[in-house]
Design brief:
The protein is of the alpha+beta class. The protein has six helices and four strands, in the order αβαβαβαααβ. It has a four-stranded mixed β-sheet.
Length: about 190
Amino acid sequence: MVVVTWESRCHWVTPGLPRHQVSLGARHCVAKAIATLRPDVLLTVGSDGLTGHLDHVACHRAVQRALDISSHVPPVALGAVLDRHAVGEAHDQATSVLRRKVGSGRVTGVDLDPKVVTVTGPPGTEERRRRALDAYVPGLGTAKPKSLSCHRVGAGDSVLLRFVLDSSGWDRDRFVKLRCDERRGSPRVTQ
């Protein structure tokens, strides 16, 4: 298995183009990367950008549109989503702990139905994710929920995400299958 992290060198934002729209350059840049790397599995965010952030939504759209024009279609192409129920629980828990509204209101999640694929990470996934959240905001991943404060970690979507992971499981990810051009074959997902 080859794991590739790719830093965008594309110009996601085009002057005069709203941030939520994808430039042709971004679509072609992603399509070129897919054709060059020829991945068997392609992971991105779902259509809501996971967090509703406009740049994340634009990333999903660029990947989705790139799949339509790329010379290579990965056998598996998935977009990450959050469980709507876990998001609701996270809102309640975070509000109770931090005593204020948490998040932008754009993080909504999806209903878990048979089309949603759940993947459980290997041992150590929870620890690595908690440390990664700590790198973003010190203490956000590893501190006990009751010891968190808005002064220390803020009240944005990253804080809400921490509570979502507490609710849904730090070692689990959920994905939906991305649409691919049917004429060239669609991604296959086995459960």
